[in-house]
Amino acid sequence: MSSPSPAGAPVLAAGCVLWRRSPAGLEICLVHRPKYDDWSHPKGKLKRGEEALAAALREVVEETGCTARPGEELPTLRYLANGRPKEVRYWAAEATGGGFVPTAEVDRVLWLPPATARRRLTQPRDRDLVTALLDTLGGH
């Protein structure tokens, strides 16, 4: 029986930097995962045979309740998670509808201005994605 990910091969995941326009300006959605007590962008592992963008949009729906229109691909993050290499592809995605319902995986979401979102993110590596999003949107 073969394992889904050979030893040393990265765990593949995908996510989005989810954004919307509000009367106050651009807002970015962050999710709170009680298992890790962290704030991050919505993301998750790819299912067998799943394309990365499809996985990213699925994770947005599962974690935030929002549907989204994908935009430009953002930088891919590579890091160690539990001693294994992990590779997460990200896209900019504009929220187009839906609403949040808390789950065991994600118990809260916040819609924050970019500077506040950058400060609230738990992992410093996630902060560069806010800058990348703003660059793709023309610095708004």
Q: What is the total tally of β strands?
A: 7
Q: What does the overall shape look like?
A: globular
End-to-end Cα distance: 50 Å
- Main beta-sheet strand count, sense and barrel state: 7 strands, mixed
Q: Which CATH architecture would you pick?
A: Alpha-Beta Complex
Mean pLDDT: 94
What is the structural class?
alpha+beta
Helix count equals 3
How many domains would you count in the coordinates?
1
- State the oligomer: single chain
The radius of gyration is 15 Å
Residue stretches low in confidence (pLDDT < 50, at least 5 long) are: none
Quick structural gist:
This protein has 140 residues and is of the alpha+beta class.
Task: Describe the protein in words.
By secondary structure, this protein is α+β, with helices and mostly antiparallel strands. It has a single domain, classed as Nucleoside Triphosphate Pyrophosphohydrolase, CATH 3.90.79. It has helices at 52-64, 114-120, 124-136, and strands at 11-22, 25-33, 38-40, 43-45, 66-81, 84-98, 108-112. Strands 1, 2, 3, 4, 5, 6 and 7 form a seven-stranded mixed sheet that branches. β5 and β6 form a beta hairpin. α2 (114-120) packs antiparallel against α3.
Secondary structure elements and pairings:
Elements: E1 11-22, E2 25-33, E3 38-40, E4 43-45, H1 52-64, E5 66-81, E6 84-98, E7 108-112, H2 114-120, H3 124-136
Parallel strand pairs: 1-6
Antiparallel strand pairs: 1-2, 1-4, 2-3, 2-7, 5-6
Task: Please tag this protein with its features.
45% strand, 3 helices, alpha+beta, 140 residues, Nucleoside Triphosphate Pyrophosphohydrolase
